[in-house]
Specification:
The chain is of the alpha/beta class and 454 residues long. The protein has two domains: 172 residues, Ribonuclease Inhibitor (Leucine-rich repeat, LRR (right-handed beta-alpha superhelix), Alpha-Beta Horseshoe); 148 residues, Leucine-rich repeat, LRR (right-handed beta-alpha superhelix) (Alpha-Beta Horseshoe), CATH 3.80.10. The protein contains ten helices and 21 strands. The strands form six sheets. Strands 11-12-13-15-17-18-20 form a seven-stranded mixed beta sheet. A six-stranded mixed beta sheet has the order 1-2-3-5-7-8. It has a two-stranded parallel sheet with strand order 4-6. This is LRRCT domain-containing protein. InterPro entries: Cys-rich_flank_reg_C, Leu-rich_rpt, Leu-rich_rpt_typical-subtyp, LRR_dom_sf. Keywords: Leucine-rich repeat, Repeat, Signal.
């Protein structure tokens, strides 16, 4: 009986197995096949959803920065005007890669791993005006890649390891056309050694195909000593990141800078130099940045601003100097800021003494400037005061002498005898000194009185 029971249980289990089998097999197939495929599609959708689509000034932006993308997705909107692909993992720009975006005006591809641009990579982009390719791995490119871009106005190619040989000839000749003044600025040769550091815009093109250039200088003149290495300050183009949309921005924040970078771009509207270690602003360091409207120098170690430190910033609207070590402004520091509208000065150890008066004087004569953060830090008796309140007490009027009926004689309130004497003096000189200036009338009558008495 026991054996029969076991046999029946075995038959029941065996008959149930085929019903579970297909479901289990389908699940396995799903894991290996269809489900995985649906997962890829879902991943693509998630990547598309992660891209931020928004409108600004009537134009459509698609922000796909920092998405680990290696290519362009086919299901992205076709009617976008600005495509932001910075800080992804794109390595090669394939032919017709962007041809679906026929309305595109700007394409931001900076800070990728791009090492190759195929000839037809920008086909279809006849409306494109701005192309950002800086901070990549490009060694060579040809003019052919840019031919589909008749409206190209801004081209950024710096911080790429350009190999200045024959293959770069057509691109450099195109960049050096006088009418294309905003194409390829600041891009430099990395090799060969003889041309290293030279700007593509100023390079002698005839040297590109010169085999003699490829030889090391030490090989050409073996007996000549090596020149000492020159110390070159980091340039803004290599240290910082440039963004052209929605407004041109040079981002140099958190770069451990201890000085203002050299060769600041001239077409930048906003500049962020915050969170560095800059201590001293010297004259005319922003002279070329004439279009600058916002300058952020907050959270540095600034303690000295030389006169003419802001020379050339005629159109600057906002200046942030908060979180620094400023005690006062030297006379004339702010005289170049004709159109300033906002001045941030908080968290600085302002010292309330005579040196602070220039800043208050300037603000008083520029009532359109909104400012914040002017609080006395020293001396102790004025700590926590508003600087403008301190200046009012410094320039406060002397109390009027109540005993003289409101006349301030400057005699420390010695009664009325002096006033009576002055009245007598006025009577004795009446009619003779009316033509004298009033200060002279007040100082000289005692002398004339003595002469009359003798």
């Amino acid at each position: 009986m026991h054996l029969l029971t076991m046999l029946l249980v075995f038959l029941l289990l065996h008959s149930a197995e085929p019903r579970r089998g297909p479901r289990s097999g389908a699940a396995e197939r799903g894991k290996a096949g269809h489900v995985r495929g649906r997962g890829r599609a879902g991943l693509n959708r998630r990547q598309t959803q992660e891209c931020k689509e928004y409108m600004e000034a009537g134009e459509k932006y698609l922000d796909c920065q920092d998405r680990q993308l290696t290519t362009v997705m086919q299901d992205w909107p076709k009617d976008i005007h600005h495509l932001l692909l910075a800080r992804n993992k794109i390595q090669v720009l394939r032919e017709n890669m962007f041809s679906q975006f026929t309305q595109l005006k700007s394409l931001d591809l900076q800070q990728n791993d791009i090492s190759m641009v195929e000839g037809g990579a920008f086909n279809g982009l006849s409306q494109l005006t701005t192309l950002l390719l800086q901070h990549n791995g490009l060694k060579t490119a040809s003019e052919e890649a840019l031919l589909p871009l008749p409206r190209l106005t801004y081209l950024r190619l710096y911080d790429n390891p350009w190999s200045c040989h024959c293959s770069l000839d057509s691109l450099i000749r195109m960049l050096q056309v006088p009418s294309k003044r905003n194409l390829g600025n600041y891009a430099k040769c990395v090799e060969p050694l003889l041309l290293k550091g030279q700007k593509l815009k100023k390079l002698n093109v005839d040297l590109l195909c010169d085999n003699e250039v490829d030889r090391r200088p030490d090989d050409r003149e073996p007996g000549r000593p090596k020149p000492p290495p020159t110390k070159v300050k980091p340039e803004a183009t290599s240290m910082c990141h440039t963004y052209m949309f929605p407004k041109p921005l040079l981002d140099c924040s958190n770069k451990s800078l201890d000085h203002i970078p050299s060769n600041l771009p001239s077409d930048i509207v906003r500049m962020d130099l915050s969170s560095n270690s800059i201590k001293h602003l010297r004259p005319k360091q922003f002279l070329l940045s004439k279009d600058l409207k916002l300058l952020n120098l907050s959270s540095n170690s600034l303690h000295q601003l030389d006169t003419a430190a802001f020379a050339g910033l005629l159109y600057l609207r906002e200046l942030d100097l908060s979180n620094n070590s400023l005690h006062y402004f030297q006379y004339g520091v702010l005289e170049d800021l004709y159109y300033l509208r906002k001045l941030s000065l908080g968290n600085n150890p302002w010292i309330c003494d005579y040196n602070i008066h220039y800043l208050i004087y300037w603000l008083k004569h520029h009532p359109g400037v909104f400012y914040t953060g002017l609080i006395c830090s020293e001396p102790q008796e004025f700590r926590g005061w508003r600087v403008e309140d301190y200046v009012k007490t410094y320039n406060g009027e002397c109390p009027k002498d109540q005993q003289t009926g409101g006349m301030d004689t400057g005699q420390g309130g010695q009664g009325g005898s002096d006033n009576d004497t002055q009245e007598v003096m006025g009577e004795t000189t009446e009619g003779q000194d009316d033509r004298l200036p009033r200060p002279l009338q007040e100082r000289q009558p005692k002398t004339f009185e003595i002469i009359r008495l003798t």
